[in-house]
Amino acid sequence: MSANCCEHDHDHEHPSASDTPRYRRVLWVALALNALMFAVEIGAGFRSGSVSLLADAIDFFGDAANYGVTLAVLSMGLAWRTRAALLKGVSMVGFGLFVAGRTLWSAAQGLPPEALTMGLVGALALGVNVAVALMLYAFREGDANMRSVWLCSRNDAIGNVAVMLAALGVLGTGTPWPDLAVGAAMAALALSGGWSVLRQARGELGRAGAGQAKRA
């Protein structure tokens, strides 16, 4: 999506067009589902020894926090929503770096995870994330704050499919490498998405500052 989606000065002064009861309801539902799946996956990740499940669990926690931040700034001006997007972009990059480190640690251990738990929990998580992504699809073309919400949900659904494929790979090979490969891929996806949000948010913040300078 183009970073120039909010060109007009009035967008910098007023709340987002997405500040509607419908959008708020969607965000509250998404927050609750992500918090629930964090609890499920963090337990399953430690029980199975799967780095990809642990990565997905942390991602669910980060998304729940992101939805909360989005709800907090939804009625504020573009500058505040953009600052929230900057925070979320940084958190996505931080998540990517953590997963990369955890993947390296697990590679050094060399123990395969429990494939059945990976597959079942990955399928459950996919169902939740697809439902959330469908609810948020109509709001994907907004400002950087809205874009970050959509990207989180999209990335999660992609990650869940990868976890399920990794479970099949672990089951078939008896090695941890499919799980580790997915962990590395999820780290790269988080880093890419976080950088995209940060780049758009910086552009929007710069235009907001320029608009305020003109009005002054």
Task: Break the fold down into its secondary structure elements and pairings.
Elements: H1 21-48, H2 51-73, H3 78-109, H4 115-136, H5 144-173, H6 177-215
Helix pairs in contact: 1-2, 1-4, 2-3, 2-5, 2-6, 3-5, 3-6, 4-5, 5-6
InterPro entries: Cation_efflux_TM (IPR058533), Cation_efflux_TMD_sf (IPR027469), CDF/SLC30A (IPR050681)
Domain Cation efflux protein transmembrane: 27-204
Protein name: Cation diffusion facilitator family transporter
Short description:
The chain is mainly alpha-helical.
Helix content: over 70%
CATH class: Mainly Alpha
Give the strand tally: 0
**Which secondary-structure class do the elements indicate?**
mainly alpha
Residue-averaged pLDDT: 77
Uncertain residue segments:
1-18
- Order of H and E elements: HHHHHH
CATH architecture: Up-down Bundle
Question: How many helical stretches?
Answer: 6
Shape: globular
Tell me the radius of gyration: 18 Å
Domain unit count: 1
List keywords for this structure.
216 residues, mainly alpha, Alpha-lytic protease prodomain-like, 6 helices, 0% strand, globular, disordered N terminus, CDF/SLC30A, transmembrane helix, zinc transport, membrane
Structural description of this entry:
It is a multi-pass membrane protein. InterPro entries: Cation_efflux_TM, Cation_efflux_TMD_sf, CDF/SLC30A. This is Cation diffusion facilitator family transporter. Residues 27-204 form the Cation efflux protein transmembrane domain. The structure is a single chain. The chain has helices at residues 21-48, 51-73, 78-109, 115-136, 144-173, 177-215. With 216 residues, it is mainly α. It has a single domain (9-215), classed as Alpha-lytic protease prodomain-like (Up-down Bundle), CATH 1.20.1510. The chain is globular. The model is unreliable at 1-18 (pLDDT under 50).
